[in-house]
Amino acid sequence: MDDLLAVTGLTVGFATESGLAQVLDQVDFRIGRGEIVGLVGESGCGKTTLARAILGVLPANSARISAGSIEFDGRDLLQEDPDALATDIRGRAITFVPQDPFSSFNPVFTIGTQIKELMKWKSPDAEPGSGPRRYARARRRSDLERVLELLRIVQLPDPQALLRKYPHEVSGGQRQRLMIAMALLPEPKLIIADEPTTALDVTIQAQILKLLRRLAAERGVSVLFTTHDLGTAYEICDRMTVMYAGQDVESAPSDSFFTEPRHIYTVRLLQSLPSRDHGIRGIPGQVPDLTAPPRGCRFHPRCDAASALCRQTRPDPSDVGAGHVARCWHPAPGEATP
Amino acid sequence: MTADALLSLENLSKHFPVLNVWKRRSGWLKALDEVSLSVHKGEILGIVGESGCGKSTLGKTVMGIHRPTSGRIIFEGNDITHLKPYQSRGMRRDLQYTYQDPGASLDPRWKIGRSLDEPLVIHTRLDRRARRERVREILDAVGLPEGHLDLYPHEISGGQQRRVGLARILTLHPTMVVLDEPTSGLDVSVQATILNLFLDLQKRFDLTYVFISHDLGVVRMVCDRVAVMYLGKVVELGSSDEIFDRPRHPYTQSLLAAVPQIGKGRVTETFWLEGEPPDPGNLPSGCRFRTRCTQARDDCALEVPPLVEHNPGHADACLYSAARDYSPA
C-alpha cells in the first residue's frame, strides 16, 4: 500500500530527574493516503509524543531522538533542514487540530485577524518562505474568499460576522469547527488531530466527528486521530494503532480491531469499557515507570497470560493474522472476545 | 414525596445574577430551575446532562455550597435549606461530597495520613489512637496500602488520589455521598476498578449515592435511577433501564444517540441533532429544548412542559411524548 507517512523504529527519550525516560521505544507506525488512523492508548502511553515527533515540535532541550526515521511523502523528516520543514511541511503539508481550541486562540485579537495572519504565511497561493511583507493585495482578496468558503464548509453560521468576533464569544463546538477550518486552509496532506473532541459534550462531539469524517473523505486528506476514547475512534477510524508504555502493541483495520483484538492489552482495554454484557472489568496494576521499564514485554506485570518468555524477552511486532500486527508472545486466538 | 426518601428537593432553584460591564445585574442565569427530585435510601441516582445543564450546581446546592434562590431541601426528614453553619455541622457528617479532582482538593503539603485524619478531628471526639484505627480500616476498605499514609498527594497516581478522596469522606461513616464526576480524567482501565470500588463500598457501608456524570455508559452501569437535565431543568426521570432502553424525551433520545457504541452502527452516519444549546442567560420561552428539537411544534413555545409521570416510575417533560406512544414516529 502506498503510505503517506511511515514511522520506523522511532525511539525518543526525555531527560528527567530520575534518568532517561524511554517515551517511545522502536515505534513503527504508518498512515496510507486518505486514511484515518486512530492512535489510542491510556495517558502516558506516548501517543502525543509520537504526534509531536511527526509534527517536529518536540521540546528541543529535553527530548532526544536516538533512532528511527519518519518518512513523509518521500522525505525523511528527521534528516531534513529544520528551516525547510518550517516553510513547507509544518503548518502546510501537515497541520494540527488541538485538544483545547480555546487556549490555541489569542484572546485579545478577533478570530478574523488570527485567520488572516495564518493566511499571510500558509495560504496555498503563498510562495514558500514569503512573509507578510510580500502580501499582495490581490492575494489578500482571494484568501479572504477562501476563508469564507471554508467557514461555510465547516458549517459555521454567518461567517462574515464570525470573523469580527473574539474567541470567548463563540462556543466550544464552534471554536473546534474554526480549528478544523484553519487546519484545512493550507490544503494539507495530513491533519494531526490530538484528542479533538475530548473537551466537547457528546452531542457536539457527534457533530464534529461527522464533519471530520466527511471532510477527510471529500478532500482526500489523511488524518492521524489520537484519542483515549475507543468509542470515538470506532466512529471515524479506518485503521487503529494501540500504544502501551511507549510501544505500538497492536495495529489492525478498524473492522476486525474491535471484534477480534489479538494483543492481551487490547483485549483487556476493550473489556474495561462499561457494558451490560460483561459488567465492569479493569486492568489491575499501573502503567510502568518509563525510566525503568519492565524487561521483556512491557505489559507483562499487568498481564494475566504472561509466561516466563514474556518476562525475559521483548516481543517484536509480528503478523498474527487478519491484518493484525501485534507485539505479543501469546496473542488472543481472535474469536470475538469482548 | 415517598416515605423512604432520604433526600428530597422541592422546587429547588438556584439563579446566578448575570452582570453587565458596569457590574449591574442585567439578567439571571437559571442554573437550576424548580427542580423536584427524591433520592431513596440505598439507591444510586444518576444525574446526567451536558456541560451547563446544572448538574454540578444541583450537587453543590444540596451540599450548601451554593445558597438556593428558592425551594426546599429535606434530608433525613429535616429541612436543611437554610441552616446556619454551626447547625449544619452534624448534618455534614452524614451528607458528604467528593470533588471532581481529588488531586486538587488534597493539600499538597500534607501527607495523606494527615488529610485522612482531619475530618475525624473536626467531626468526632475520638482520641488519636481511635482515629488512627479508623483511618487504617478505611484505607484497607478502599484498597490502599498503609505505606501511603506517609506519601504526599503528588506521589500517588490519579486513581489512587480518587481512592484517598473517597477514604477521606468514608472515615465519617456518612449515609449519603454526592459524587461529582467521580471518574472524569481517569483512563478506562482505572475507571473500571474505581467504579467497582464505589459499588463495593456502597454495599459494605450501606451508602446512598448521587452520581453526577456526563458519561452515559458509566451511569448506565452504576445507577439504579437516572435524572436527565437540560439547561437547569430535569427533562426525564426514571429507572436506568427505562431511560436507556425506552427514552421518551427527544433530548434524552438524541443524547443517547450521540454516544458512540462499539459494534453498533456509526453515530457519525445516523446522528440527527443540529445546533448547540442556547445561551443559559437568555433562554427560549416554553420548552428549552424546542430550538434544537426536530419534533417541536408551535405550542412548545407557549408553556414550560411539566415533568409528568406517564408510566409508573418514568416521568418526562415533553408535551408530546404521550401522543407519540400511540403513533410511533
Mean pLDDT of chain B: 88
Q: Low-confidence segments of chain B, ≥5 residues, pLDDT <50?
A: none
Spatial ordering of strands, largest sheet of chain A: 6-7-8-3-9-10-12-11
- The structure class of chain B reads alpha/beta
Q: For the report, how would you describe the main beta sheet of chain A?
A: 8 strands, mixed
**Gross morphology of chain A:** globular
| Unreliable residue runs of chain A | none
User: What integer value in Å does the Rg of chain B equal?
Assistant: 21 Å
Total beta-strand segments of chain B: 12
- What is the ordering of alpha helices and beta strands of chain B? EEEHEEHEHHHHEHEHEEHHHEEH
What is the succession of H and E elements of chain A?
EEEHEEHEHHHHEHEHEEHHHEE
Largest sheet of chain B: 8 strands, mixed
N→C terminal distance of chain B = 34 Å
Question: End-to-end distance of chain A, in Å?
Answer: 30 Å
What value does the Rg of chain A take, in angstroms? 21 Å
Total helices of chain B: the number is: 12
Largest interface: A-B, 41 and 38 residues
Helix content of chain A: 25-40%
Quaternary = heterodimer
Characterization of this structure:
- The complex is a heterodimer of chains A (338) and B (329).
- Chain A has helices at residues 47-55, 82-88, 111-122, 137-153, 159-163, 172-184, 202-219, 230-236, 254-259, 264-271, 308-312, and strands at residues 3-16, 19-32, 36-40, 63-72, 75-76, 94-97, 190-194, 222-227, 239-244, 247-253, 318-319, 325-326.
- Chain A has 338 residues and is an alpha/beta fold.
- In chain A, helix 7 links the parallel strand 7 (190-194) and strand 8.
- In chain A, helix 3 crosses helix 4 and helix 6 (172-184) packs parallel to helix 7 (202-219).
- Chain A starts with a strand and ends in a 12-residue tail after the last strand.
- The model of chain A has no long low-confidence stretch (mean pLDDT 88).
- With 329 residues, chain B is an alpha/beta fold.
- In chain B, 33% of the residues lie in helices and 24% in strands.
- In chain B, the strands form two sheets. An eight-stranded mixed sheet of chain B has the order 6-7-8-3-9-10-12-11, with helices on both faces. Chain B has a four-stranded antiparallel sheet with strand order 2-1-4-5.
- In chain B, a hairpin with a 2-residue loop joins strand 11 and strand 12.
